[in-house]
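User:
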Amino acid sequence: MDCARGIENFLATGNFIPRYESSLMQTSGLTVIADKLNFWRYLSHFRSVHRGAFFAQMRTTEVRKLRPESWGFLCPVQTPDGAPC
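Assistant: Predicted structure:
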């Protein structure tokens, strides 16, 4: 599979098929469909970070804490990791 077809398949399905042994915790569900509820919600999908199902299932607020190195890059309100606090 060439590189372009691999990227196209990844974006269409959300599944990553590693060529070699990978250290990823998951290989599926890595993309998020952008909701077209309104323009701002659609735009916010491209500014948010989705780290996968592992972090969404965590029962801790540690994944939502703002670190000094992420200030200005991550929105503390638009975090798709798990249920709202």
